[in-house]
């Protein structure tokens, strides 16, 4: 029997007693985040509305620029036609021909003398 006591397990040191745990803390009940979500939705909606308004403004300006470009081209063509017409009308040969045929004028180099008979009194 002596062998049984010799085999006895060594005594362990007593465990230090853990401090008694306090009651677990309760997490506060989650608040609905509706207000924050609505605020973000409004911010994003406002940004999107701003982008759309900006794009509409750019589109209107592009349409106006295109209209003005067409008008400028039409006015340039009209100006060219008027310049050509003015050039034709101001041509020296044309003016001379009109003066001779329509107005009955003579060329400056052609002098015509008319002799009238003398009247005796």
What key attributes describe this structure?
121 residues, mainly alpha, 3 helices, 0% strand, rod-shaped
Q: What's the arrangement of secondary structure elements?
A:
Layout: H1 2-6, H2 34-89, H3 92-101
Q: What does the model show?
A:
- By secondary structure, this protein is mostly helical.
- It has a domain at 42-105.
- The chain is 59% helix and 0% strand.
- The chain contains three helices and no strands.
- The protein has helices at 2-6, 34-89, 92-101.
- The longest helix is centred in the middle third of the chain and has 56 residues, at 34-89.
- It is rod-shaped and about 185 Å long.
- The relative contact order is 0.03.
Low-confidence region ranges: none
Termini separation: 201 Å
Largest sheet: none
Number of strands: 0
Secondary-structure-based class equals: mainly alpha
Query: What is the CA-atom radius of gyration, in angstroms?
Result: 57 Å
What does the average pLDDT come to?
A: 83
Share in β-strands: under 5%
**Quaternary state, please?**
single chain
Question: What's the total helix number?
Answer: 3
The helix-strand sequence is: HHH
Helix content: 55-70%
Shape designation: rod-shaped
């Amino acid at each position: 029997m002596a062998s049984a006591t010799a085999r006895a397990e060594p005594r362990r040191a007593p465990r230090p007693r853990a401090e008694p745990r306090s009651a677990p803390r309760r997490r506060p009940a989650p608040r609905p985040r509706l207000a924050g979500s609505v605020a973000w939705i409004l911010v994003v909606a406002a940004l999107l509305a701003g982008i759309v308004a900006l794009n509409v403004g750019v589109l209107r300006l592009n349409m106006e620029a295109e209209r003005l470009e067409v008008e400028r081209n039409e006015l340039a063509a009209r100006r060219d036609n008027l310049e050509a017409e003015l050039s034709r009308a101001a041509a020296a040969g044309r003016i001379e021909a009109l003066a001779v045929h329509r107005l009955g004028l003579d060329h400056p180099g052609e002098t015509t003398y008319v002799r009238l008979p003398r009247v005796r009194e």
